[in-house]
Amino acid sequence: MVDRAPRRGVDSAFSAAERRRAKEKGVTRALQHEVSALQGEVKQLHAVLAQKLGVNSRGIKDVFGKEFAVPVDEEHKATKLRIFNFTNPHGRAFHTSWFGFFAPFFTMFASAPLMNEIRKPSSLDLSTMDIVHADICAVCTNIASRIVTGYVCDILGPRRTLAFLCFVICPAALGMLWVESAAGFIVCRGVIGLGLATFVTSQVWCTQMYSKSVVGLANATSAGWGNMGGGVTNLVMPFVFSAIYNLLDGTPLDKEDRAWRYCYFLPVALCLAAGCAALTGRDLPDGDIKQLEKTGAKQKPQGRIVLRTGLCNVNAWVLTITYGMCFGVELTMNSVAFLYFHDYHGLAPHEAGLYASLYGLMNLFARSLGGQLSDWSNERFGMRGRIWACWIVMSLEGVFCMLMASVTLSMDAPFNRQMTQGW
């Protein structure tokens, strides 16, 4: 009897301890469930802030310890395109890439709305074939430079490559002030054509800065706003010419000859500004290519292997042909639309420039819509969706090209039949 009392006390003490432990475990499990639920809500809130407002609510920082201005993924690529963000690295890369493409594009087609004055016997005395040869030369140098530019971007990075292309065409654009013959004009146009390879740097740069959920929109908007330079130059240059013409003294023909030359100060200034702006950017979200390669954070690219792989890839060639057909139409329209409206329909230079600019100005929204369509298709159907989106848009372009041709079937030829082959 004496031994049982303490044993009962010990048993009751153990039971109480077990109950307390069980209760604590229950409380712990409940707390864990609540914490998990709260973490899920916080994660969902971060996703909403990133998707809807483009806010880096997680406070993710780059290797320099600076917080990104936009939400990023695990590779520090932006998951949201914020148009009014100009900070490094994502916003700066986006805006400098499209402007770096815009300036050479503006320069490339600056001669189109000025051609009525350039071709006069009192100036360069260009024939129709001279104009055509200049256009062909510019396109050929563009094709060659684009092939090389992709390889250079892998070595030097898109930032330096874009700046170099903007700077290298400045002497040719400035040379328009002193050119005296058709040969000189063709050479200058050919060198200026090198600048259109900034399209490659634009696409490379945006691809390195934006995640796959928005890269279609980012690439399309950057390329579209850059291509818009062809429309803006057709719209703006006639007014620039008129303003300069009214400031000059001399005979009308002499003023015309000097005015169109002085107009080239504007594209030169744009290219210089674009090149300098590009140098303020960053190749990758965490730094420049050379810096990251020195620290071992990035491996040196095998450019030759990538180039050889691309040249041997059937899909790459299909996309090349597709883009060539699409972009070829745009190059043609930007080159000949002004003279078509001026010579064939008898419109004044300002009116002809306005109508000729409408095609290029559609890049303000058209390419962005294509990028959104591509991203939407990828989200729902994967890469196959992007391919179908490309096929549908290209087919629609072909249909509208045929419709445009059918509208003009009953009209006379826009030029003398002996000269039509040149156009």
UniProtKB/TrEMBL annotation:
It is a multi-pass membrane protein. InterPro entries: MFS (IPR011701), MFS_trans_sf (IPR036259), NO3_transporter (IPR044772). The chain crosses the membrane at residues 98-115, 161-179, 186-205, 225-248, 260-280, 316-341, 385-409. Coiled coil: none annotated. It holds the Pfam family MFS_1. GO terms for cellular component: membrane. GO terms for molecular function: nitrate transmembrane transporter activity. Keywords: Membrane, Transmembrane, Transmembrane helix. Belongs to the major facilitator superfamily. Nitrate/nitrite porter (TC 2.A.1.8) family. It is found in: Membrane. Signal peptide: none annotated. This is Nitrate/nitrite transporter.
